[in-house]
TrEMBL record:
GO-annotated cellular components: cytoplasm
Annotated ranges, domain Thioredoxin: 2-168
Native organism taxonomy: Bacteria, Pseudomonadati, Pseudomonadota, Betaproteobacteria, Burkholderiales
EC numbers: 1.11.1.27
Role noted for this protein: Thiol-specific peroxidase that catalyzes the reduction of hydrogen peroxide and organic hydroperoxides to water and alcohols, respectively. Plays a role in cell protection against oxidative stress by detoxifying peroxides.
GO biological process: cell redox homeostasis; cellular response to oxidative stress; hydrogen peroxide catabolic process
Entry-linked PROSITE patterns: THIOREDOXIN_2
Organism: Ramlibacter rhizophilus
Name recorded for this polypeptide: Glutathione-dependent peroxiredoxin
Length: 168
């Protein structure tokens, strides 16, 4: 499992972009994790799936609600990573109203989750291999804090916990 001091995995995630911008076309766009995290402080959280109950009712809304406080604590970007494709993450971003606050990044083949050692096997529930629930503070591509939930729990990966760590 990834640990404090480790670099983020050198993988590419996918982000659905609604508005064309510099170097970003509308639709799925690759996000090179190493390049995108270089020189930044990132509040990164992973969760099992888009539109799932805890993820939609608590996890994502907590980070949206703490956006300003996290920025004041020195966080440049907030990333949500889930084992879903970019289209699903884009639809979930619209549903959760994350634009300008949380980057919704698809890890469609679970490459990031596997490389971090943070997978959750939900095959018995018809969901296949997913990301476990966790949060981490990342500075210049390296893990500074790591909060991994026990299966089925939501106690340490919340925005309140990561905000306190960012302020420390």
């Amino acid at each position: 499992m990834i640990k404090i001091g480790d670099p983020l995995p050198n993988v590419t995630l996918q982000e659905y972009v609604e508005v064309e911008g510099n170097g970003c076309s509308i639709g799925p766009n690759p996000v090179d994790v190493a390049k995108a995290s270089a020189g930044k402080t990132i509040a990164l959280f992973g969760l099992p799936g888009a539109f799932t109950p805890t993820c939609s009712a608590k996890h994502v809304p907590g980070y949206i609600g703490h956006f300003d406080a996290l920025r004041q604590a020195g966080v440049d970007e907030i990333w949500c990573v889930s084992v879903n494709d970019a289209f699903v993450m884009g639809a979930w971003a619209r549903d959760q109203k994350t634009e300008g606050k949380v980057r919704m990044l698809g890890d469609g083949s679970a490459e990031f989750a596997k490389a971090c050692g943070l997978t959750l096997d939900l095959t018995a529930r018809g969901m296949g291999l997913r990301s476990g629930r966790y949060s981490m503070l990342v500075r210049d591509g390296r893990v500074v804090t790591l909060n991994v939930e026990a299966p089925g729990k939501f106690e340490v990966s919340d925005a309140d916990t990561l905000l306190a760590q960012a302020r420390a």
